Amino acid sequence: MLYKKINLKNRFNQLENDVELVSYCIDNSKEIDINKKRKTVIIFPGGGYKSVSFREGEPVALRLVADDINAFVVHYNVGPYEYPYPIIEGFAAIAYVREHAEEYHVDINQICVMGFSAGGHFAACLGAFHNKQEYADMLNVPLSEIKINGVLLGYPVITMTIGTIAGTRDQLLNNNPELKDYYSIEKQVDEEYPKTFIWTTDTDNCVDPIQTLMFANALKKAHVNFELHYYPIGPHGASLANEGVYGLSWKEEWAKCSSYENNWIDMAINFIKKII
């Protein structure tokens, strides 16, 4: 495996702070295909823009690797933010992966972003803004270097208007009301939005699942190819919804949701392989 920890600031000195990008990429072998290029997912864990979750990062990356998909995890800086942060850090990660596609055996036509909760909002923003020249200019790269081919979201924050915990909203907006609509991604969807996979649960008591439905409605109106899974039960922050990502205190919650939520990753992998 090509496992590396990369400081994106060493490549993009425009960034204000260090940003760690961790690679979980499969090396090629003469036994299989020495020239293979793989579908690749760049993961943005959640944490309310106050932290970066471990269990929505490495465990998910390793699950993707098991299905012959390259993965990277972005340890982005937490808020409060000033525009264009944190979005510019996400595009720096995408540009780095594209620049180093040969090294990591990446298929540059099949690069996706995946995010959970607030990280889902981060990933959704990247899908909305990947065709904006201003972000490419900030990093001094061609617009093609920040292009995204697919978006995968788990119980995502979508809007800054309703059903979002105030702390998450405050970290992102940082008392700048002019950004409220800009970061309400259901208002930013157009026909150029990448193909999207989304899942959430009806019993999520942290991020109102109506946000996922609002986003799906926006995708439908824009004629974007998407797949939606709305599970009847399951806690917020489920990640892979298996014992490997739950501490003992979550054992009961895991038992409630495991029959539903832990199949989302199989369907997401199918989406990556067949739709992206």
What does this structure look like?
- By secondary structure, the protein is of the alpha/beta class.
- It has an 8-stranded mixed β-sheet, with helices on both faces.
- The chain has a single domain (2-274), classed as 3-Layer(aba) Sandwich (Rossmann fold).
- Strand 3, helix 1 and strand 4 form a beta-alpha-beta unit.
- The mean pLDDT is 93.
- The radius of gyration is 17 Å and the shape is globular.
- Helix content is 31%, strand content 20%.
CATH superfamily: Alpha/Beta hydrolase fold, catalytic domain
Roughly how many Å apart are the termini? 24 Å
Detail the poorly predicted runs: none
Instruction: Provide the gyration radius in Å.
Output: 17 Å
In short:
By secondary structure, the chain is α/β, with parallel strands linked by helices. It contains 9 helices and 8 strands. The protein is globular.
Task: Pick out its properties.
276 residues, alpha/beta, Rossmann fold, eight-stranded mixed beta sheet, 9 helices, 8 strands, 31% helix, globular
